[in-house]
Structures are given as C-alpha cells and as structure tokens.
C-alpha cells in the first residue's frame, strides 16, 4: 500500500538580516506554480532590534516593507526606551531631508503618506505625549515640515493648536485636572458601619462598578509597562503612572471599607456582624455578575485578611450558603495554573454583554447601566508586564533596542485596550446616599485593624459549637498611593521561558523590584504560581533549578532591603548555588545604587517567620546557607543598628500579600 504525501503550495522561510543599524526578521513566502516548477516569492520584513534612530525612522517605511503593526507597537511602547522629545527630534531631522527631488516624485508621495499616517495615529491615540512636552518649540519646528496636501494641512492645524495650549499653560500655574487626588480623611464620628445594610447589594455593586469603570476607561495602558511602573517610587518620579495609582487607591479604599465595616462596631453581637459579612458576600456576587473583577477581588481580599478571618464566632454565625458562595468567588482568583480561571473569564467575558452565570442573571434587573463592560483586576496585567520587563533585556549585546520585547509587551497592552473599549459606552446612575456612606469610611492601618479584631475576639479564645478547619491562603491587596508589589517569578508560560533560554542575548534574571516599606496600609499585587517551564523556573518562593545535569548552577530570586535616605527599598537579586556572601552583598549594594566595594562593611541577614533572623556567614555559600522558609533579606552595616532590627519582623508581613500579616482562611464546615 502506497502513501501519498502532499506538499503545501505556500512555503515560508524565516531569515534574519542586519542592515544599517537594524536587525530584521525576514519572511519569504514561495508560491509554486501549477503548470511549471517555477516559483514566485513575496518578502516582508519585521524589525527585531535596532538603534533608537533607526527604529524611529522605520516608522516612515514600516508599512511599505510589510511590517504593518510596527507603528502601533512603537507608539504604545517607545517610552520604555526613549522619550517623546527624542522621537520628535529624529523625525524632524528626517523631514528636513525628504526623499525625492520634488513633492510629486515617486519616492516623495509614499513618504508623505507615511508621515501623515504616523502623526495622525499619534495625535489620535496619545495626544498627552505632545502636551507633556511643556513648551511649544518642537511642535512649531515640526508643523511647517509636514506635507502640504489636505491630510498634512489638517495635522498641521492640530499641532499648532497644541502648541498654543502649551504656550498658555506656560503662563498659568499648574492646574492639571486629569490626576485623581485622594479624598480628604473621613471623620470617624460620622461613620456608621451598619448603614451599609440598608443598601441593596445590587445598588452597592452598581456604584462600585461605576467608580471602577470610570477609572479603567481613563487608564493609560502604557503606564502599566514594567519599565515605567518599577520606577514609580524613585525620587522625582512621584507623578508617573498616575492612572494606575488611581486604580490602586480605589482598590485599597474598597478593601478598607469592607474591613472597617466588619471591625469598627466592636460592640455588635456575632449575629449582627455575620450580617455584615453576608452583605459583602452578596455585593461581591453582584460585582461578579457585572464583570467588575477589580471590586470583586478587593472585597474577597478584605474578607480573607487576618483581622476578619480570625473572627471565628462571627464566621460560625454566617449563613452556610453565603460562605459557600464566598468560597466560589474566592476560587476565581485561585493561583492554580497561572491564574487560569481569572484569565479564562477575561477572555470569555471581555465584551459589553452581561455575565451569564448559569442563567442566574438572565432575569435579574440591572440597576442604571444600559451596557456592561468588563473591569479586570489590573494586578494580573501589571504582573505580566513586570515579569516580562525583568525577564527580557531591553537591549541586545550590540546595544540595539530589543524591539521583540516591545512586541510581547504590546500583546498585553492590547488586551487592556480591548477591555477598555467594552467599558466606554457604559452608563450609570449615581446614588448619592451610598457615596456619602462610602466617603465617610475612616482609613484603618494595620495596627488599628488588629486592635479592633482583638477587641472583638480575644486571641486564642476558645469557641464552642461548630468547628472550623482553616487552611492558610495568602491575601493580596494594593497599597494606598504607592502600590508596590512583590515580583514572584512564577507567571511566564513554558514557551516564553523556553524561548528566552535559547537566546544568549536574553536574560530571565535581570530583576529590579523596589518599594518602600513604611506604609501603614497593606500592600500587594502579584499572583504567585509556579512556572511550568521546559528547563527552569524562576521564582521567589521556590528553588528554580536547571534539571539538566551539568547545564548550569541552581538559581533563586531573593529580596534584599536596606535603610536608605529615600526610603526603605527592596531590590530583587539573583542568587546562584555558586555565590558566596561577599558576592551577594556586592550585587545588592550595586542594585541599591551603593558602592559595591563597601561589601566587607556589611552583613547579610535572612528574615525568618516569627521575627527570627539568620546571619549568613561571611564566607558562606548563600544559596545553601539560607533556609527555604523566606526570601527576604536585610543588608546592614556590621555592628550597626538599623531601624529594621529594632523590632521583630515577620516574613508574613513582608513577603506576602498584603503586608497585613495576612493569614486568610478558607472555611470548611
């Protein structure tokens, strides 16, 4: 019996070519002719890497070369490797020397069309880039160089109007209106926690969805780029990523409202407090129905926090069915399989339609809104982008900008923009009574939360009746203004990591995660799930090893902090099984912008649970000397007494989400 093999008519060959400061991935497609063996081929070029100047210039030629997505990706991500001023300077220089001898030449016309296409898209999608210039000089230089055809004339008019705005702003005091400022502190004497029981759960969820939707629509996607977000706590960068900070504040504010309403009335009976838990569980369910995953997660995180979950008597009085629903909602954010359930829900429900929860919402009346977008938990995207930024180098060994990295970042940003588009047509009705209650909630810090919780139920107080079988679950909350997160290297797919390992120009281990530690409010935002990789996983909690014998040392990412003038900063450091203590200290000092030559003057201390510490020997191998119970370390001068060591430190506080000493508990009856 003979088998016939059919060869496809279209064959593609992918090549890599370098030409004048740019590396291209070239795709050559061959079509076999039927009558003869002759073939025809088509060729397209896609930029892989290049110098800043060549990447900017490629904006004007990419479409003609078959790299149709380049303009969109560049405009979405260029701020991670250059500035608006630099891009405009390069484009202005190019426009001053256009191709062709006349405006009607065969080379000038497609060039002019490309110029109009780039600036039309840029002005439409990112007008804030031009407003951020601060002064009109560049725009006034650019405007006369644009083509004189109708498209160029229209763009010139828009640029001149922006230049006029900048001139006026230069004469006026700063009156930025697109920054969301925190609300003034609430008056605790006017706060009545039980008033929340008077609002229908659907109304509360609708008002929360209104707040979240308005913030999400105003979110600037590129603010989520890891290279920008990781710089937010540095001096002089307090105003970067303002749209993400606004989302963070709302997340923290809602989580605080849930905790405050459950803890503040210390005189309430357990049955009354159980009604508050049941109310918030119902609100969370209504948020789920409205595809408001941000508010849903804030509520679930607050209920999982230790001050609330330790109230055994209250949970014993809570309706069994309500607890069951709470467990179902909590499972949405399970870290199993890289938060697969959360991601799958975003794919399924990233539309303007209502959620269909097994038909439960079919006949349920929606309050106020005529369409329903999807508001995601932003932490998943921020984590993915931060992981990508730390895992892939910005530049190749020859100094070229790694544009392949920008393509991968754009894939995440495109998901955000797609979800934003589903929210733009949502219409809501404001309920002033609920907003007044919401604004009256006082802010509780960690110590206050525990004090109130302990007043309600004394620690280690025995309980009667039904018993609970608690299991520890890490809760995750944002911080209030600063919103730092602990980068767990556990989220990349096998394919991405495998691709990185194959290329000597790409590193998965260049990490720089910093955040202040003097916040009184819980902090967090990063899911923690082991990576499934062909060769190696990189994490903070598990030991990433190379399973191939003889292929390299074992590796681990740890966090090291030290007391600095600009705050208590964390840095993530790669530790291999070959590293001795001086090497790790030197790397940590360098990451903290300190002199690595001062390493002999410092000692390395591992921070363990229950306030314990382990001093790593000066001549020891850090990888094998440290215990596996914590990834947090302290770097301090020998013989010194830093603020960190003046009181016990718990890794539950520093290495998990939130920094609220969180031991959330799943309840089983």
From TrEMBL:
<feature type="region of interest" description="Disordered">
    <location>
        <begin position="519"/>
        <end position="553"/>
    </location>
</feature>
<dbReference type="InterPro" id="IPR008937">
    <property type="entry name" value="Ras-like_GEF"/>
</dbReference>
<feature type="domain" description="Ras-associating">
    <location>
        <begin position="557"/>
        <end position="640"/>
    </location>
</feature>
<protein>
    <submittedName>
        <fullName>Ral guanine nucleotide dissociation stimulator-like 2</fullName>
    </submittedName>
</protein>
<dbReference type="Pfam" id="PF00618">
    <property type="entry name" value="RasGEF_N"/>
</dbReference>
<dbReference type="InterPro" id="IPR000651">
    <property type="entry name" value="Ras-like_Gua-exchang_fac_N"/>
</dbReference>
<dbReference type="Pfam" id="PF00617">
    <property type="entry name" value="RasGEF"/>
</dbReference>
<dbReference type="InterPro" id="IPR001895">
    <property type="entry name" value="RASGEF_cat_dom"/>
</dbReference>
<feature type="compositionally biased region" description="Polar residues">
    <location>
        <begin position="539"/>
        <end position="550"/>
    </location>
</feature>
<dbReference type="InterPro" id="IPR029071">
    <property type="entry name" value="Ubiquitin-like_domsf"/>
</dbReference>
<dbReference type="Pfam" id="PF00788">
    <property type="entry name" value="RA"/>
</dbReference>
<dbReference type="InterPro" id="IPR019804">
    <property type="entry name" value="Ras_G-nucl-exch_fac_CS"/>
</dbReference>
<dbReference type="GO" id="GO:0005085">
    <property type="term" value="F:guanyl-nucleotide exchange factor activity"/>
</dbReference>
<dbReference type="GO" id="GO:0005886">
    <property type="term" value="C:plasma membrane"/>
</dbReference>
<feature type="domain" description="N-terminal Ras-GEF">
    <location>
        <begin position="43"/>
        <end position="167"/>
    </location>
</feature>
<dbReference type="GO" id="GO:0007265">
    <property type="term" value="P:Ras protein signal transduction"/>
</dbReference>
<feature type="region of interest" description="Disordered">
    <location>
        <begin position="170"/>
        <end position="192"/>
    </location>
</feature>
<dbReference type="InterPro" id="IPR023578">
    <property type="entry name" value="Ras_GEF_dom_sf"/>
</dbReference>
<dbReference type="InterPro" id="IPR000159">
    <property type="entry name" value="RA_dom"/>
</dbReference>
<keyword id="KW-0344">Guanine-nucleotide releasing factor</keyword>
<dbReference type="InterPro" id="IPR036964">
    <property type="entry name" value="RASGEF_cat_dom_sf"/>
</dbReference>
<feature type="domain" description="Ras-GEF">
    <location>
        <begin position="200"/>
        <end position="459"/>
    </location>
</feature>
């Amino acid at each position: 019996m003979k088998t016939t093999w059919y060869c496809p008519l279209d064959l593609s060959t992918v090549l890599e070519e370098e030409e004048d400061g740019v590396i291209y991935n070239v795709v050559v497609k061959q079509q076999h002719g039927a009558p003869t063996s002759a073939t025809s081929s088509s060729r397209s070029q896609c930029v892989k890497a290049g110098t800043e100047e060549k990447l900017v210039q490629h904006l004007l030629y990419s479409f003609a070369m078959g790299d149709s997505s380049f303009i969109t990706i560049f405009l979405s991500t260029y701020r991670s490797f250059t500035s608006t001023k630099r891009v405009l300077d390069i484009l202005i220089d190019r426009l001053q020397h256009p191709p062709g001898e006349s405006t009607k030449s065969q080379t000038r016309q497609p060039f002019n069309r490309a110029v109009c296409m780039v600036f039309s898209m840029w002005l439409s999608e990112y007008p804030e880039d031009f407003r951020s210039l601060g002064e009109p000089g560049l725009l006034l230089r650019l405007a006369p160089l644009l083509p004189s055809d109708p498209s160029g004339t229209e763009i010139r008019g828009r640029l001149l109007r922006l230049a006029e705005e900048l001139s006026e702003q230069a004469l006026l005091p700063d009156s930025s209106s697109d920054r969301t400022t925190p609300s003034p502190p609430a008056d605790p004497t006017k706060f009545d926690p039980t008033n929340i029981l008077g609002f229908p759960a659907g109304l509360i969820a609708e008002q929360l969805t209104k707040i979240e939707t308005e913030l999400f629509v105003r979110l600037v996607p590129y603010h989520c780029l890891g290279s920008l977000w990781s710089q937010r706590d540095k001096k002089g960068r307090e105003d970067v990523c303002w749209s993400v900070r606004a989302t963070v504040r709302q997340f923290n504010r809602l989580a605080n409202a849930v905790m405050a309403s459950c803890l503040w009335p210390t005189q309430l009976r357990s049955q009354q407090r159980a009604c508050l838990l049941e109310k918030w569980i119902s609100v969370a369910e209504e948020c789920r129905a409205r595809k408001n995953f941000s508010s849903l997660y804030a509520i679930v995180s607050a209920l999982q926090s230790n001050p609330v979950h330790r109230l055994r008597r209250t949970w014993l009085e809570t309706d069994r069915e309500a607890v069951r629903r709470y467990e179902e909602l909590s499972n949405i954010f399970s870290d199993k399989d890289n938060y697969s359930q959360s991601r799958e829900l975003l794919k399924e429900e990233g539309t303007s339609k209502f959620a269909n929860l097994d038909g439960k919402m079919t006949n349920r009346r929606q309050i106020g809104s005529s369409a329903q977008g999807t508001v995601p938990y932003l932490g998943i995207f921020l984590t993915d982008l931060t992981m990508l930024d730390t895992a892939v180098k910005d530049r190749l060994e020859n100094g070229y900008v790694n544009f392949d990295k920008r393509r991968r970042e754009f894939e995440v940003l495109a998901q955000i923009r797609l979800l934003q588009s589903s929210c733009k047509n949502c219409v809501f009705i404001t309920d002033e009574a609920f907003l007044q209650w919401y604004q009256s909630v006082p802010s509780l810090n960690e110590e206050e939360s525990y004090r109130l919780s302990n007043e309600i139920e004394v620690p280690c107080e025995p309980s009667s009746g039904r018993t609970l079988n608690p299991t520890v679950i890490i809760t995750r909350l944002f911080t209030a203004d600063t919103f730092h997160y602990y980068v767990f290297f556990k989220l990349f797919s096998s394919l991405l990591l495998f691709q990185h390992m194959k290329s000597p120009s790409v590193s998965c281990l260049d990490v720089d995660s910093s955040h202040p530690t003097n916040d009184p409010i819980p902090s967090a935002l990063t899911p923690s799930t082991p990576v499934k990789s062909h060769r190696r996983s990189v994490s903070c909690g598990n030991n990433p090893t190379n399973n191939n014998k003889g292929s390299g040392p074992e590796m681990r990412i740890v966090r090291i902090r030290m007391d600095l003038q600009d705050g208590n900063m964390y840095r993530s450091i790669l530790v291999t099984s070959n590293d001795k203590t001086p090497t790790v200290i030197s790397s940590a000092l360098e990451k903290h912008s300190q002199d690595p030559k001062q390493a002999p003057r410092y000692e390395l201390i591992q921070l363990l649970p229950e306030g314990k510490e382990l001093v790593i020997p000066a001549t020891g191998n850090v990888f094998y000397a440290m215990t596996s119970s914590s990834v947090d370390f302290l770097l301090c001068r020998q013989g010194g007494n830093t603020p960190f060591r003046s009181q016990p430190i718990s890794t539950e506080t520093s290495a998990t989400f939130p920094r609220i000493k969180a031991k959330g508990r799943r309840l089983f009856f």
